[in-house]
Amino acid sequence: MQIIHSGDEVRQLVWSMRGRGKTVGVVPTMGALHDGHVSLVRKSVELCDHTIVTIFVNPTQFAAGEDLEKYPRTFDADCQAVKAAGAVCVFSPSITEMYPDGCSTFVDPPAVALPLEGISRPEHFRGVTTIVAKLFNLIPATHAVFGSKDYQQLKVVEAMVSDLNFGIQIVAGGIIREPDGLAMSSRNRYLSPADRASALSLSAALRGAKELARGGETDIAKLEAAMQKSLAGVDKLEYATIVDANTLQPMQTLRSPAQALIAARVGTTRLIDNERIL
Q1: Where is the signal peptide (predicted)?
Q2: Can you give the chain as a three-state secondary structure string?
Q3: Which of 37, 50, 124, 143 is labelled catalytic?
Q4: What global pTM score does this model have?
């Protein structure tokens, strides 16, 4: 497996693959990989002839006071994991490679970025769309695999690719959970034992809403109230809501497709989770 740090070098590699008629998948990550990330790599390996994993902790998607400096970095272990999963290359650029001096162009995110995370973290998605656009320009892949745990990010990337005519197919991977239901996240390692027990309320709240919906409850206010009650033990609830799964716009009466999404702080750790409930 190759490890490449140069944008020009990785672009040349991908065009050589494409020139031989091969399909190429890219899996963008910020490293600190867990089994959820590995599942995305495996999905790409199954789908494409060659898979490239990017590892880059993108500073422009972190606001002041967020965890950029302490975000976990486990590069050697990450490389071993993606190699075992079948990737042929890791692209791990420096900050100056991606944002050279004088770089002042950013990609404004689409409308689907405005609610939820767009309110809680208003600078976040501009950083996401910018770095993803730059990666897609450097890695002209046929497919890109994104996880569904960052559900709004997935919808933002899908909209950007459509709006800006990127010639790449976005593939969604599923949410991988721990045996007790906690969605896998690089930030789970920040949780104390007590915090981790409290964090289980996120997946429990989603399951509860899904069960109520399957039982015939269609009043969004009642469904959201039930979720919020389940989350009473978290340190700070940012949102627990049910929205249109495509537009992320609110609804008053449950209709398909509906997505339940949660963002909460448990201890000092910010966690997100989601579930299709109808």
Answers
A1: none
A2: CEEECCHHHHHHHHHHHHHCCCCEEEEEECCCCCHHHHHHHHHHHHHCCEEEEEECCCHHHCCCCCCCCCCCCCHHHHHHHHHHHCCCEEECCCHHHHCCCCCCCCCCCCHHHCCCHHHHCCCHHHHHHHHHHHHHHHCCCCEEEEECCCHHHHHHHHHHHHHCCCCCEEEEECCCECCCCCECCHHHHHCCHHHHHHHHHHHHHHHHHHHHHHCCCCEHHHHHHHHHHHCCCCCEEEEEEEEECCCCCECCECCCCEEEEEEEEECCEEEEEEEECC
A3: 37
A4: 0.96
